[in-house]
């Protein structure tokens, strides 16, 4: 082999090594870029994680975990209270307002109203039925009214379940296991007794209807703000209860526990 051929061979080997080094360097640089691209998170708006973290930090009122619509049962009553159908909600609230004005402002009586309404309806239908032969018009179609059994049974069953649940809660409170719940219930009943002394049952019922048609929908609209304020208020109430328990409740003498087990 001549010197010229050996020199060409050495140049080819050096060129091959140089190409391999360049290929390795480029592949390593690509892999580094891929790692940077993979490790760097995609650009997202900073508002969504902040909002989600804020919502997770805010404790819901009374430990609520379900939406407001589900708390009210998720059916037609919830739709009425939360104004999902504005016509039905406005009609219900307007009807309650009209009834309250008739019985409280005008001082109309329920039995008188029912009798006058039936008198007008029966007189109108009777005259229409007898005068149809003279005025060449068809007789009025008087529908047959029947109360269906299934909705009545469902309503009665729902009322029964709620009454049984209320009795169970009252029994739990009367057992003396939860002093805080006992004080809350006593305070609530005392407040209702004050309201009952200031107004009659119809006015109190109308106030409840107005509250059910205003407070839930406003709470659903300003849910985060109300829950944040309520969380701070409950924290302050717990602090005051601890002070009250240490200064008053802990000093109330209690009898010794009697062992009811027979030897």
TrEMBL record:
Q: Does the keyword Endoplasmic reticulum apply?
A: yes
Q: Which residues form the Reticulon domain?
A: 77-263
Species per Swiss-Prot/TrEMBL record: Anisodus tanguticus
The entry's cellular-component GO terms read: endoplasmic reticulum membrane
Q: Where in the cell is it found?
A: Endoplasmic reticulum membrane
Bias type Basic and acidic residues, positions: 1-15
Q: Where are the transmembrane segments?
A: 88-103, 109-128, 181-212
- The organism's superkingdom is given as Eukaryota
Supply one GO BP term.
response to bacterium
**Which keywords accompany this UniProt record?**
Endoplasmic reticulum, Membrane, Transmembrane, Transmembrane helix
Alphabetized Pfam families for the sequence = Reticulon
Q: How does it sit in the membrane?
A: Multi-pass membrane protein
Q: Where is the composition biased (Low complexity)?
A: 38-54
Q: Name the PANTHER family for this protein.
A: RETICULON, RETICULON-LIKE PROTEIN
Region labeled Disordered — which residues? 1-54
Q: What is this protein called?
A: Reticulon-like protein
């Amino acid at each position: 082999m001549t010197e010229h051929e050996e020199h060409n061979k050495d140049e080819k080997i050096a060129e091959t090594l140089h190409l391999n080094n360049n290929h390795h360097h480029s592949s390593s640089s690509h892999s580094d870029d891929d790692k940077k691209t993979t490790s760097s998170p995609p650009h997202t708006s900073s508002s969504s994680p902040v909002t989600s973290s804020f919502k997770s930090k805010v404790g819901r009122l009374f430990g609520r975990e379900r939406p407001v619509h589900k708390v009210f049962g998720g059916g037609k009553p919830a739709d009425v209270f939360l104004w999902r159908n504005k016509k039905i909600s406005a009609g219900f609230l307007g009807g309650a307002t009209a009834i309250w004005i008739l019985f409280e402002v005008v001082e109309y009586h329920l039995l008188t109203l029912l009798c006058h309404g039936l008198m007008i309806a029966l007189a109108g239908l009777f005259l229409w039925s007898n005068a149809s032969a003279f005025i060449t018009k068809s007789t009025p179609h008087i529908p047959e009214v029947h109360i269906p059994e299934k909705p009545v049974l469902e309503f009665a069953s729902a009322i029964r379940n709620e009454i049984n649940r209320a009795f169970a809660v009252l029994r739990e409170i009367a057992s003396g296991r939860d002093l805080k719940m006992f004080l809350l219930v006593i305070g609530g009943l005392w407040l209702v007794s004050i309201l009952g002394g200031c107004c009659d049952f119809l006015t109190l019922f109308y106030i409840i209807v107005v509250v059910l048609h205003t407070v839930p929908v406003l709470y659903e609209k300003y849910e985060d703000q109300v829950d944040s304020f309520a969380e701070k208020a409950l924290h302050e109430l717990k602090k005051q209860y601890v002070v009250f328990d240490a200064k008053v409740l802990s000093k109330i003498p209690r009898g010794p526990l009697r062992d009811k087990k027979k030897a």
